[in-house]
Automatic annotation (TrEMBL):
The record marks 164, 219 as: Positions MEP for the nucleophilic attack. This is 2-C-methyl-D-erythritol 4-phosphate cytidylyltransferase. Catalyzes the formation of 4-diphosphocytidyl-2-C-methyl-D-erythritol from CTP and 2-C-methyl-D-erythritol 4-phosphate (MEP). It comes from the Bacteria. The keyword Cell membrane does not apply. It is an enzyme of class 2 (transferase). Its EC number is 2.7.7.60. The record marks 22, 29 as: Transition state stabilizer. It catalyses: 2-C-methyl-D-erythritol 4-phosphate + CTP + H(+) = 4-CDP-2-C-methyl-D-erythritol + diphosphate. It comes from Duganella aceris. The lineage of its organism: Bacteria, Pseudomonadati, Pseudomonadota, Betaproteobacteria, Burkholderiales. The gene is ispD. Pfam families: IspD. GO terms for molecular function: 2-C-methyl-D-erythritol 4-phosphate cytidylyltransferase activity.
Length: 239
């Protein structure tokens, strides 16, 4: 699906209002130090280093007391929005509503987890190039390489093997036009069931492009992920 003669601008939007329950740290995981700086700062710096990105918006909760130390107000190219919601979807939707009239309807929004510190300008460029002018947008993702089991029972049993052909693991950034993403999230039935932006867009009948990402762009979810993220950051490969 292709459309439009409008030349879009590319914006980054980072939901950073989660509590990191699965990390079970002292505070929200986006502020944990990974490879020498806060996790969130790695993600923001990848967008700041990309010449393709017009501006970066970071969305935190109204009560957040740590953001100013990580992203000082004078930092170029970044604006903090204090409108985080109860779910990731709510956080992104609140930010899109706050940006109405600030970004154009046809401009492209790259939504990226604050908890993915391994993003690089090369991966951002790959997403933008891969999506091109496809009106359905697209996302970074990785093909599943392991054998996939369906679990059942207690104790857990391997009830079936799910064919992995055609299965991909969604990463971020996920990129859509402002208008499409707002329509998708505003119309989505259940914020708790929408774990990524692409799933809301799919519900409108669109099929976003899958662009191969890189393992270094993992989401830091569990404590053991910190070491893996640090390994990729130290290796320096751009993805
Ligand atoms: N209400 C929420 C929930 C999540 N997020 C953000 O969405 C991304 C998704 O990552 P995830 O691992 O789900 O983060 P948390 O919700 O913090 O983690 P958990 O589910 O373990 O609590 C993170 O950048 C997180 O800060 C958000 O902005 N607002
Ligand atoms: C958006 C995401 O990171 C894509 O993999 C993921 O869906 C976040 O979901 P989670 O269930 O909160 O980990």
């Amino acid at each position: 699906m292709t459309s439009s003669t409008h030349t879009p601008r590319y914006y980054a939007l980072l939901p950073a209002a989660g509590v990191g329950a699965r990390m079970a740290a002292d505070g929200p995981k986006q502020y944990l130090t990974v490879g020498g700086k806060p996790m969130l700062r790695h993600a923001v710096d990848a967008f700041r280093a990309s010449e393709l990105v017009a501006h970066t918006y970071v969305v935190v909760s109204a009560a957040d007391g740590q953001i100013d130390a990580v992203l000082p107000p004078e930092l170029d190219g970044v604006t903090v929005l204090r409108c985080g919601g109860a779910t990731r979807m709510d956080t992104v939707l609140n930010a899109l509503r706050a940006l109405r009239g600030v970004v154009g309807e046809g401009d492209m929004i790259m939504v990226h987890d604050a908890a993915r510190p391994g993003l690089t300008p090369a991966l951002i460029a790959r997403l933008i190039e891969g999506v091109g002018d496809d009106a359905a947008g697209g996302l970074l993702a990785l093909p599943v390489v392991d054998t996939v089991k369906r679990a059942a029972g207690s104790p857990l049993l391997s009830a079936a093997t799910v064919p992995r052909a055609g299965l991909w693991l969604a990463q971020t950034p996920q990129m859509f036009s402002y208008a499409l993403l707002l329509r998708a999230l505003a119309g989505a039935p259940d914020a708790n069931a929408i774990t990524d932006d692409a799933s809301a867009v799919e519900m409108l009948g669109y099929a976003p492009r899958l662009i191969e990402g890189h393992p270094r762009n993992l989401k830091v979810t569990l404590p053991a992920d910190i070491r893996i993220a640090e390994m990729y950051l130290a290796a320096g490969e751009q993805g």
